[in-house]
Amino acid sequence: MTPTGDEAPVETESAAEQDAPSYPMLDSPADGVPDVIVDERTLTAAADAIAAGHGPVALDAERASGFRYGNRAYLVQLRREGAGLFLIDPIACPDLSPINDAIGDAEWVLHAATQDLACLAEVGLRPQALFDTELGGRIAGLKRVGLAAVIEHYLGVTLAKEHSAADWSTRPLPEPWLRYAALDVEVLTQVRDLMYADLEASGKLDWALQDFQALLSFTGPPVRTDPWRRTSGMHKIRERRALARVRELWQTRDALARDKDIAPGRLLPDALIVAMATTPPTSAEDLSALGAAPPAPGAPPRRSRKPHHGLLRYQREWLAALERVRVMPERALPPASVRGDGPPPVRAWADRNPVAAARLSQVRDRLGTFGEEHSVPLENLVTPESLRRLIWNAPKVWDESMIREQLASYGARPWQVDAVTPLVVQAVEDHPATDE
After folding, report:
1. Residue-wise pLDDT tens digits, 341-386
2. Where is this region: Disordered (predicted)?
């Protein structure tokens, strides 16, 4: 789900800071930081302890996003009452199925589950029930739903987040990093219990439980068609052969990054891909000049004018990619744009389908009112894409059951279907289809 963001400031920064609550810092687990589990014997002992524990199990994972290729887990943290706190190295112990068996059907407690479920599944950890304290916080109406903010709200303590962007593939992991990671699960079940009560008191517990149940089938973000088209700066490129250069360079970079286990952006920034696609170099000297060029007007100054290390280290591969495009026949070049299967941009609706435009505007307004009344973000009621598809593709004859069926096919939960359907029905009645 999309974050809602912090509350808009209503005072000057200094006044807001002066009036902000001052929370004590939670800086160490109650029982200290345990040793990292790196062998099967210790893993088995941890599984036995977890199986003997009771209640939900708090879990978290640390990845090396921005440093390594992909999103694999480099540290897994677990805590359960009656069992204790465990830090596991999934590189040294890549099969955590003994831990999964020990948890059994006990509820997992995670924060922002969609960030971790896929990488946890890769090491054999798959929940049978879960509670997401970020998603639950949204439904509960919290204005800020980051882990530290949620803990502040419910427990009146705060977490230090100084290692959130660390390279967790580092070995050995420094003790301050481990302490930070351990704290992510130290009080998570306490937060879960208080949030559960909050949701129940507000009549929104069933909403949250339906959303949590839907997360059990989450396997990761959807695979995108032509992911190279999401290269930053692509909007500057229109000519098809230049697009082909972006594609070839992106695919070459991706293959190298996968092979070297390096984040693609560290191997070669998107800005250099776009620069090479716009003005293709033909020699090592051209590459050096490109990498050392001064920053564009308005861009922050670089610390060094030295070419990016990946630009020169893999110059043979970049030049070969550009040469393949140079001799590529016209028919093999990518189209300038790809038409999606979704509706057109909303700004075009008024001209192309004024009835749909009026319906969408009305439903959005009334969803906004519903969200305000129930303290639920609009994106947690219905995804913008689902709403656009529903209304744009509406047949001329449309009844409530058809609307419900269509929403469900887009993945809406029953509570969302119940909330959205009457608003769409009313919009259809207020803006009937024309014969044009």
Report:
1. 789 999 999 999 999 999 999 999 999 999 999 999 999 999 999 9
2. 1-31, 284-308
- 3-class DSSP assignment, residue 4: coil
Residue 68: CB partners within 8 Å, gap ≥ 6? 74, 167, 169, 261, 262, 263
Distance in angstroms (rounded) separating the CA atoms of residues 218 and 412: 14
Residue 270's contacts (CB-CB under 8 Å, 6 or more residues apart) are 231, 232, 233
Nearest to 231 by CA among 271, 263, 266, 259: 271
Set out the domains of the chain in order of their start, with CATH numbers. 13-215 (3.30.420.10), 227-332 (1.10.150.80), 346-430 (1.10.150.80)
Secondary structure (DSSP) of 265-307: HHHS-HHHHHHHHHS---SHHHHHHHHTSPPPTTSPPPS--SP
Residue 301 scores a pLDDT above 70:
no
pTM of the model: 0.89
CB environment 73-92: b (16+ within 10 A), e (fewer): bbbbbbbbeebbbbbbbbee
> How do residues 140-150 score in pLDDT, each as one tens digit?
999 999 999 99
- Exposure class string for 270-286: b at 16+ Cβ within 10 A, else e: bbbbbbbbeebbeeeeb
Buried residues in 179-194 as b, exposed as e (16+ CB within 10 A): bbbbbbbbbbbebbeb
Residue type, 215: L
Rounded mean pLDDT, 256-283 = 95
Torsion of CA 61, 67, 69, 75, to 10 degrees: -20
pLDDT digits (tens, 9 = 90+) for 373-420: 999 999 999 999 999 999 999 998 889 999 999 999 999 999 999 999
